[in-house]
Amino acid sequence: MSDQTLHIAMYPWFAMGHLTPFLHISNKLAERGHRISFFLPLKTQSKLYHYNLHPHLITFIPLEVPHVDGLPLGAETTADVPFPSQSLFATAMDLTRPQIEQSLRKLNPNFVFFDVSYWLPELLRQLGNNIKSLHYCIVSPVTVGYLLSPERKLTAKPLVDSDYKEAP
Q1: Crossing angle of helices 120-127/97-107, nearest 10°?
Q2: Which partner from 2, 44, 139, 166 sits 20 to 30 angstroms from 66, CA to CA?
Q3: Which InterPro entries does the entry link to (predicted)?
């Protein structure tokens, strides 16, 4: 890689187990002089601020998580949502798309790191600014393959203990 300074945006799933690794890689990239725009819910900023080792290069971009019927009012991360409501939270996060689009138009980063927002690469192509998307998966490929394989038919039935004893 050249010595060129890059502008990178981060858009992780709104769970502390995703936000924290995204901030860790942001710190590593900032150590190399890259500028980072980090999307996260407004009230969640205070939980991560002390992990931002380069506040002059890493800027938190606040997002409002839209309300979805069935979710607690003010839910911002998966910690605010009962496990059975996780799919509703995914819907709420998908509804941040207009905010993300508006911000990306202004920021015009070189890259956007994401993990679960399946629609992000298509959005970047629509923007046409030559912004590249990077799927940054915080779990190992083996875990993804083992747990999320289509062979598991996750939409048809929930996994039980015996499902984990054999590879898909």
Answers
A1: 40
A2: 139
A3: UDP-glycosyltransf_plant (IPR050481)
Q: Which domain holds residue 79?
A: 7-137
pLDDT tier at 140, thresholds 50, 70, 90? confident
Report d(CA 141, CA 143) in Å as an integer: 5
Q: Determine whether 18 is an active site residue.
A: yes
Q: Could you tell me the pTM of the whole model?
A: 0.85
Position 143 in a domain: no
Residue 80 catalytic? no
Catalytic residue among 34, 54, 115, 161: 115
The SS3 call for residue 93 is: helix
Q: What is the CATH number of the domain that holds 46?
A: 3.40.50.2000
Strand partners, 11: 114
| pLDDT tens digits, one per residue of 78-88 | 999 988 888 89
Catalytic residue among 7, 18, 94, 161: 18
- Tell me the per-residue pLDDT of 4-37, one tens digit each, with 9 for 90 and over: 899 999 999 999 999 999 999 999 999 999 999 9
C-alpha angle 119/121/125, rounded to 5°? 115
